[in-house]
Write a structure and sequence with these properties.
Number of helices: 1
Number of domains: 1
Helix content: 10-25%
Shape: extended
Distance between the termini: 40 Å
Largest sheet: 4 strands, mixed
Number of strands: 4
Order of helices and strands: HEEEE
Strand order of the largest sheet: 2-3-1-4
Length: 95
């Protein structure tokens, strides 16, 4: 039982930063449907926000679209300063 309690304590410590960031409004969630390229498409692809939709219940909604080719603006390599760091924007795509 002690190993389980220690594991729970470590998880609470690790995800405490997420709860703190979420409570302070530092994390934004962007949700939307993803329009995919045809299944037979071969080659590089990336995802863009095709359309911004009205917010619903304080949640940001968009339409994502998969487009051919490499990403013209690749995100910079992020190195989190410590394990407790959390991203500021989380995109949730419904396929």
């Amino acid at each position: 039982m002690k190993p389980v309690l220690r594991r729970i304590a470590r998880l609470e410590d690790r995800f405490g930063a997420v709860r703190t960031a979420a409570a302070s409004g530092q994390i934004r969630f962007r949700m939307g449907d993803l329009r995919r390229l045809p299944a037979d498409y071969v080659g590089e692809r990336h995802i863009v926000v095709a359309k911004e939709l009205p917010s619903q219940n304080g949640q940001e909604w968009v339409e994502f679209e998969e487009v051919p080719g490499p990403d013209p603006n690749p995100p910079p390599a992020q190195r989190y300063q410590h394990q407790g760091s959390v991203p500021t924007l989380v995109s949730i795509m419904f396929v």
